[in-house]
Structures are given as C-alpha cells and as structure tokens.
Specification:
Distance between the termini: 46 Å
Order of helices and strands: HHHHHHHH
Number of helices: 8
Number of strands: 0
Helix content: 55-70%
Shape: elongated
Radius of gyration: 19 Å
Structural class: mainly alpha
Strand content: under 5%
Amino acid sequence: MDKQIKKRRSGPRTFNREEAIDIAMRLFWRYGYEGVSLNDLTAAIGIAPPSLYAAFGSKAQLYREALDRYAGIPGALLNLDEPSTLDDTVAAILRQGADAVTDPGGERGCMVSSGMLQCAGEHADLALVLTRRRDAMRETIAEALGRWLEPDRARSLARFLVVVLQGMSVQARDGATREELEAVIEDALQVSRIR
C-alpha cells in the first residue's frame, strides 16, 4: 500500500499532542488501525517512537484517543430532537450521515462504521470498542425515534437506519458522491415509511 503521509515540516522538534491526535485520526480513518504502522504515525507526526509511547502509552491508546476526537466531528446524530415528525427525523439522520461520509473536509466513509470490522486476534479489544460505539449509535437513533414509535419498532427501525448508514459509509469509501447517496436516501425513506 502506498500511503501519502504528510510529514511534519522541519524545524525545532516541538510536540503538539492535539495536533498528533488529529494526524493519527486522519491516518486511522483513511487506512484503519491495522493499515497504519508505528512508522507511519511517527513519520506523519514528526516524532520518534519513544516520544509517541511516552505521550500515548501505545498505538492502541492513540487509536482510542483518535476515536474520541472523531466522535467530536459533526455527523448523522445532530439535533435529533428538532425535527417535528418521524419522517423528518429519519430524513435528517440519513442526510446528515451522507453529508458526513462525503464531506470534502474529512476522509471518505465513517471511522466507526467501517473501522475494524475484521482484525487480528490481538486487536479484538479495540474491535469491541468500535462495536460498542456502533451499538451506542443505534441506541441514540432508537431513542430519537421513540418519540413516535413503540420501543420495539424504534429499535428495529434504528437497526435498519444504521445498516443504511454503514452501507453509505462503504459506498463513500468506494467513491460514491453525495448525489449518488441521495438516491439511496430516497429509497430508504420510502422503505422506512412502510410501517
């Protein structure tokens, strides 16, 4: 794999922890946890491995912090209490999700939805972190839908919407445009209206 890694400009070696997390987040988002080596991280951040370990403890801990940083980026679950109807809520979730996975200011796809779906056994604990984040996303959606639906139906529709969001994430990684995802959203909205 030929990675294009932005190297830190030369000059005095000052370590900015927040900048390092941002750089790591972008690399992990683009290539996945296992697709980013320690050398990739240290080259992009501009520090030596001992400095990375001193600051973060491990690559896995840096990944966890990168996930936390990623969670702060606007995504599909914003302002879900604002729409006044169930259909408007479903549309907002899907459209915000499509916006997020195709945002030119970020990487394509969703770091949580497509992160570590398969991994080596020694990374199972990190994969579980992502599974829990995906579960929390589904629960947040179910809670928003619960304003209009019985709990079982809200959970079922939330699972459907998460499947659509995760599929759009993969499609975006494969190059689908925002306009192409809008067609998917329109179809999903038709399906979700069948109660």
